[in-house]
Design brief:
alpha/beta, 15 helices, 37% helix, twelve-stranded mixed β-sheet, two-stranded antiparallel ribbon, 18% strand, 470 residues
Length: 470
């Protein structure tokens, strides 16, 4: 893999204005221009599941705390102590550039017809390096050179991804010692723990390229699908999108789905599980599965057009069309047997590993697909002793409504984010970045423990009731 800097990209698909990144040696920067960062993009060439050669695309942004005008070897300590975040979107089949442009990256795509690209003030790379990967093969710019060969399970996926990641760090060794965190959302609730475990396993072999894995962060993860679908039925009913009779029909179908799942008929279980989700939406007038308050999911606008323009592809050193899908298309078809599998044991393995890997699980409260309750029940099971006794703090703003609800015990942190759907950084960009940095850098979640107040209210109510009947 050659070093491939990104110097500039078009500001939209229809004009010649550009947004600059790391300084172009042949271009003098304009006074007062936005702060630039080092940025690299391109492919890692790796073996596919069979004998095919596959290409996985990445786009890297150095932290804004580093100076792009100074050679990396002259700020080695700063670069190496800065966390490096890997970001993965889910789908399966979704490009992680959706996360870059719609959620937590340094760029934003406008909702105007031109799809104007602008610099985001809420980017996660203000204090961390961020590395976006299109994976598995078939998502985004990533593809197989000679035939459409797609991964069939998480073991194949994590094996291929680890090879690509090693290739990245061998090409950019100045970042190899950075504290490494694997992050993502939705179906990445499966990708992330499998990739982290693969890194862990390979590190034990004492390879030449040791990766400094420190932890994982997952937003609204598709972790235990059987649980998420049950919670979705209950959420839709409680929100008024289902009537009692409709819920009874779904509950009956859900029992059949569970029987098939327990029998290990995984592809059939995926068909039935997807059918349940689609039936819930049909009963509910097709509300947005990712935000119960909406009727349409977040729009990518002109992003597909923008990412397929010749100028953008040339700037990013890509030679393939960009495409993205959400649980449809060849990537999802190949992973059909994986879709309804339970990945929660991987979290338990990482949490209880002797390396004490740090884990952040966060959820937007209005997501019906991979919402708070399923994450809560999974943590309640795998954390066991002491978790329920941990104070659940109300993370407060100086004025106004709560930012979130936070529990932390040892190496595990859980955050519920109000007024947010599935893609938390898109709904609450500043709060989600503050949440991430609090977790990364051990900064406090300032707030209050409501336990004593709530218990006093309950005790007073009981006292008043006793007096009333006495």
């Amino acid at each position: 893999m050659p070093r491939q800097p990104v110097y500039a990209i078009p500001a939209n698909a229809f004009n010649t204005q550009t947004i600059h990144f790391c300084p172009d040696p042949g271009k003098k920067e304009e006074e007062g221009a936005p702060k630039t960062v080092r940025s690299y993009a391109g492919y890692a060439d790796v073996d596919g599941p069979g004998t095919e050669r596959s290409r996985l695309f990445h786009w890297f942004f150095e932290s804004q705390t580093c100076d792009p005008h100074v050679d990396a070897d002259k700020q080695k300590d700063l670069i190496e102590k800065t966390p490096l975040l890997i970001w993965l979107n889910g789908g399966p089949g979704a490009s992680s550039l959706l996360g870059l442009f719609l959620e937590n990256g340094p760029l934003r795509v406008g909702d105007d017809a031109a799809g104007t690209i602008s610099v985001s003030p809420d980017t996660w790379n203000q204090e961390a390096h961020v590395l976006y990967w299109d994976q598995p093969v078939g998502a985004g710019y990533s593809y197989c050179k000679t035939s459409e060969t797609y991964v069939k399970d998480e073991d194949e996926l994590s094996e291929m991804f680890h090879r690509a990641l090693v290739q990245f760090f061998e090409t950019y060794p100045e970042y190899q010692k950075c504290p490494l965190y694997v992050c993502g959302e939705s179906y990445a609730g499966k990708y992330v723990p499998y990739i982290a475990r693969k890194i862990h396993q390979e590190n034990l072999k004492r390879p030449r390229t040791h990766l400094n894995l420190q932890g994982i962060a997952v937003g609204n993860g598709w972790i235990r699908p059987e649980l998420s679908i049950r919670v979705m039925i209950d959420y839709a009913f409680a929100s008024g999108f289902l009537g009692k009779g409709q819920k009874d029909v779904l509950d009956s179908s859900y029992k059949h789905f569970q029987d098939v799942l327990k029998a290990g008929e995984m592809k059939k279980a995926t068909d039935l599980g997807n059918g349940l989700v689609n039936a819930i939406l049909a009963y509910g007038g097709d509300f947005d599965v990712y935000d119960v308050r909406r009727w349409e999911d977040l729009s990518a606008g002109a992003l597909p057009v923008y990412l397929n323009t010749a100028a953008v592809k040339e700037a990013l050193h890509v030679d393939h069309a960009w495409e993205s899908a959400d649980n449809s298309g060849p990537v999802a078809t190949a992973l059909k047997a994986d879709n309804m599998a339970d990945a929660s044991s991987l979290y338990a393995e990482l949490i209880h590993a002797k390396e004490n890997y740090r884990v952040l699980l966060y959820t937007g409260d209005f997501d019906t697909a991979c919402g708070y309750q399923s994450t809560e029940e999974i943590l309640d099971e795998i954390m066991k002793d002491g978790w329920q006794e941990v104070p659940r703090l109300i993370w407060k703003q100086a004025q106004g409504n709560p930012k979130g609800f936070v529990r932390s015990l040892n190496n595990v942190t859980q955050v519920a984010v109000p007024d947010a759907g599935h893609e938390v950084p898109a709904y609450q960009p500043r709060i989600s970045r503050e949440m991430l940095y609090n977790w990364l850098f051990d900064r406090p979640f300032h707030g209050q423990d409501p336990e004593s107040v709530a218990r006093a209210i309950l005790a007073k109510a009981l006292e008043d009731a006793d007096e009333e009947t006495g």
